[in-house]
Amino acid sequence: MSAESGNIARMRAFVEQVHEGGRVELIDDFLHADFRNRSAKNGQPDDRRGVVAVTRALHTAFAGLEVEIVHCVETGDVVATHKIYRGRHVGEWLGTPPSGQDADFRVMDFVRMRDGRFAEHWSVLGPLTAGIPEEPA
Fold it and tell me: Which domains does the chain carry?
């Protein structure tokens, strides 16, 4: 078995410390100054500020947030991760009102690395599962 690459180790550290841990003060250590999120939604900043906003939104929406990295692979200068985000849904998440129940969603991310930092990002978010309030009949 080969040792984990530096880029994969950086991605794992980012997920653990920033997304799961909520340590937005570390974002500048992981992202290039000219970082661009190619999947930013309309009205969302596509730079470091957007990453700060998403991280804060995650921790507002999900109490006890945990992030499981299912797969993390690298090809060339791109690191791809398949992750599951889990927590108690206590705040609005992407327009879904809080349910108070345990919930999860999956994310597939692709990050182009440059000099050990994130330079570009693309993602696909799966639907929020479990804990979604049922609509009245």
Answer: 6-125 (3.10.450.50)
